[in-house]
Amino acid sequence: MSTQIHANLTESQVTEISESLGEPEWLLETRLDALAALDGLDMPDVIRTPGRDWTNLDALDYESLVDPLDWAQEKDRVSAEGVDVLDWETALSEHGDLIEEYFGTVVDTERDYLTALSTALFSAGTVVYVPEGVTAEDVKIRTRMNSRSLFNYTLVVAEESASVTILERQSTGEDAKAVDEGRYYSGIVEAVAGENAHVQYGALQNLSEETYNFQVKRGHADTYGQINWIDGNIGTRLTKSSVETRLIGDSSESKIVGAFFGHDDQHFDIASRVWHEGEHTTADLVTRGVLDDAARSVYEGVQDVGTDAWDTNSYQRENTLMLSDDSEADASPKLIINNHDTEASHSATVGQVDAEELFYMTSRSIGEEQATNMLVEGFFVPVLEEIAVAELREDLEELVAGRLRN
């Protein structure tokens, strides 16, 4: 059983959050059910490699980090023509039936302890609704965390033949007071792509390095639907991130692109998962990360091909570059194949800067530090080339360059 933190949580606190957001009775009941379920739930599964559990979520002092009624944020939302990008209270008023139809259908509200905790306590919410046939490319969500803890929820619904590109940024506000003991950020994203719909969701996390970060992004793609994820992680003390797609409909597709850069004693636990359920489905998982100092990372990639997923194409590549002898990394790519009509591959590498490349550059009057920085920037190029959103690509390049300068 997991570490329990709910001794200081009460039904009245959950009710107060729900009432402050003008939520209907069914949603309050969902929150209270999640709160009651905490006793029987374990922490999220952690990635295990032979002889080692890389991430110990039970060791975190959540009780000192979480105050359900003390939350503060700055939230900027930029919409596009024909698309509703709404705060939670407004969305409930204008699209209550839509929320009731989809809330908790993509990410199980009680799938593990931290997800249920987020269901019970989330106070920051956004709904992106893209009606049938609408195309939008410039939807933006910026969250600045100004409190000790923040529970965020995002619902994206793209109807038939709709298309949307969403860029989300997460950071700690400049006015937020430093907290030596840590902060806690929780983010749940549910995305639904209807028939022939396209959702591209890019997220760039640069929270302060005193923050513990738990996030789940999960999507369902219908027939000819497409869900693409871009997940960049630069900040936090510890990140536990899972990006997932179920390819439910025939000829549905998904691409999951990940990038991370750790230094000092940062820890990244990254997972990319795809389930092939329909026929003629395609998935591509690409992740690259860099570690310096005493940073650690572990990656798990899962491609699960179902028995009815005829004519499947599924590919996975993960590479981690270590700049320090004190950094640690491991990867656990997995193929689960239950249909012989499948073309699939997976690969993972962990290594240091190539000595020959470094020697070649330093022998041509390039300083060792500059040469290493250039090799790191070049290492990220294959991932950057997969990012179709120019603004996100440029932001990630800038953050990588900033990390190298430091």
Blueprint of the fold:
Layout: H1 11-20, H2 25-37, E1 48-49, E2 52-53, H3 62-65, E3 73-78, E4 84-87, H4 88-102, H5 113-121, E5 124-130, E6 135-145, E7 149-158, E8 163-172, E9 183-193, E10 198-206, E11 211-221, E12 226-233, E13 238-247, E14 253-262, E15 267-276, E16 282-291, E17 296-305, E18 312-322, E19 328-337, E20 342-352, H6 355-362, H7 368-384, H8 390-405
Parallel strand pairs: 5-7, 6-8, 7-9, 8-10, 9-11, 10-12, 11-13, 12-14, 13-15, 14-16, 15-17, 16-18, 17-19, 18-20
Antiparallel strand pairs: 1-2, 3-6, 4-5
Helix pairs in contact: 1-2, 2-5, 6-7
Oligomeric form of this entry? single chain
Rounded to an integer in angstroms, the radius of gyration calculated over CA atoms is 21 Å
Secondary structure category: alpha/beta
Overall form:
globular
Q: Report the β-strand fraction as a percent range.
A: 35-45%
How many strands appear in the DSSP assignment?
20
First-to-last CA distance: 41 Å
Strand order of the largest sheet: 3-6-8-10-12-14-16-18-20
Low-pLDDT segments, ≥5 res = none
Percent range for helical residues?
10-25%
Order of helices and strands: HHEEHEEHHEEEEEEEEEEEEEEEEHHH
Largest sheet: 9 strands, mixed
- The mean pLDDT is 92
Number of domains: 1
Number of discrete helical segments: 8
